[in-house]
Amino acid sequence: MPAVVETNNSSTPPPPLPPKDVRVISRTPTHPQQTATKPVAIPRQEDIDEKATMTPLGYFGYSIPAEPTLLLASSPPRSPPRVQLKGRVELSPRVTLTPEERAKRRLHVQRMREREEEEALREEQERQAQRRWQKEEQERRELEDEARRKVILQEQLRQAAARKEKEEKEAQAAEEKRLLEIRQRKETEHERRLQYTRELEQWRHEQVQRVESQSSEKEEERRRSVEERRVRIARINDQVLQEGTNAALCGWVTIQTPDSLAWKRRYFKFDLAHAQMSLFRNQRELTRTVDVVSLDGRVDSFNEWYEGFEELEAIPHSFAVKFIDGQSWLMYADTEEEKDTLLVLLSEAAGVIL
Predict the structure, then answer these.
(1) Which residues are CB-neighbours of 78 under 8 A, at least 6 positions away?
(2) Collapsing DSSP states into helix, strand and coil, what is residue 299?
(3) Helix or strand run (H / E) with residue 316
(4) pTM over 0.85
């Protein structure tokens, strides 16, 4: 049965005060439209302990979070319904607690608070420990990563150093090989040059020997030829001077003068009294003289081809008449005897001893 409270003065004690965070409407409103100025905090269902005890002051045994969430009415506050108080008012049942029960409840609430504080402290310690562990784990991973990077870097440096050392060794070996090849090539070239020099020296020596041999042979032949020519010239000289005929003073000769490069065949005739040699085209035109050469005091010497006239070497029975003015006439006869006769006549006319 709901308790009935008298509105007039009675001996029943007044109801207990509500909690501090809850504001209720005044018992005797002064204005019919007066409402609460602060919204009522409504605990959530998950925050209420199933074993909590219902009291006129509210629920006991639910935990309030560190930052309680208040469910506020989304609509504007409404004024409570007006109640006409008559002689009796029906109130919610009120349980009368003894001092021991209140003390027990306060102790229970205090212990719950202590447990909550301990739980919060334990959770905070766990969070701090978790943070420290995470930080240490992060530092450990960073150290491991750094150590791994150092190991990788050292390995890369080692490989680079080994590769560089290998390349340097290969380059040094290649350079040594190149220098060895150059040295061997130089030695081979030097040996080849020495061999060529030795062969050339041997060839030169052989050539000198052959030239000397030929020279000695030619010299001997020349000496014999000169002796024979002197004998012939002496004999021809005696014949010419003893006979003194025109036939002995005439003949054929081929001449090349400094004024012409062509060889010209001429018929000659000597006049020993006047030391002259007359040249004709042929023996039938003795009245038409081509040239008259005066020989007295003009001739320097008579020379063979080996006496500075090598161009006459290939021409048989040839010789050169060198004049005092530096000019030289080249001549050759048809036979060696005619050559000797011509030389005798020239020497007699020019006054030069053969």
Answers:
(1) 35
(2) strand
(3) none
(4) no
